[in-house]
Automatic annotation (TrEMBL):
Upper taxonomic lineage: Archaea, Methanobacteriati, Methanobacteriota, Methanomada group, Methanobacteria
Pfam families: HD (PF01966)
UniProt cross-references to Gene3D superfamilies, sorted A to Z: Hypothetical protein af1432
Classification via SUPFAM superfamilies: HD-domain/PDEase-like
Name of the protein in its database record: Ribonuclease Y
Gene this chain is encoded by: rny
């Protein structure tokens, strides 16, 4: 269950991003998020499916091949399903936006009405690893908070959830 995905499999997933016409920065970003997600996963040993985690991290932004909007997670979910990937992997892609979106927040962003909250440990780790990247650069939690506050689209509740996730997924193991 927790053996690391083979390098050939990672190359295949990266080739899928290229085939879907993801920009180079998205591919580089996804590789960085994958590395960060695997670093975080070390804290959880046998509780994480590293195959699923690594695949989800590499493909989390596949929807950016068609949109750079907040809907890229939903589009990515559809692409993953169309490519024959599991629902578990597709859920990582769909639920990785910010700290997830409630039904109310989805409505605010004109997304289909449902919860997009990361539920599984793999979903939570990929979402959080993504929040620790700004483009192709790894950043700290304070950078992300400052960026979200500048956008003024993110609620204080989301910032508190980001801090809580950071505590639960990263800080408690230091």
């Amino acid at each position: 269950m927790h053996k690391l995905i083979f390098m050939e499999d990672q190359k295949y997933l990266i080739s899928l991003l290229k085939e879907e016409n993801c920009p180079k920065w998205v591919i580089d970003h996804s590789i960085g998020v994958c590395k960060k997600a695997n670093e975080i996963a070390i804290n959880f040993k046998d509780d994480v499916d590293l195959n699923l985690l690594t695949s989800g991290a590499l493909l989390h932004d596949i929807g950016r091949s068609k949109s750079n909007g907040i809907d890229h997670g939903i589009i990515g979910y559809e692409i993953a399903i169309d490519l024959g990937f599991s629902e578990k992997l597709a859920n990582i892609i769909e639920r990785h936006i910010g700290v997830g979106l409630t039904k109310y927040e989805a409505l605010k962003f004109n997304l289909p009405l449902k919860n997009y909250i990361p539920l599984s440990l793999e979903e939570r780790i990929v979402s959080h690893a993504d929040n620790l990247y700004d483009g192709v650069n790894e950043v700290g939690i304070n950078f992300t908070i400052d960026k979200w506050m500048r956008k003024n689209e993110i609620s204080n509740k989301s910032i508190l959830k980001l801090k809580k996730n950071h505590e639960e997924l990263v800080l408690q193991f230091k």
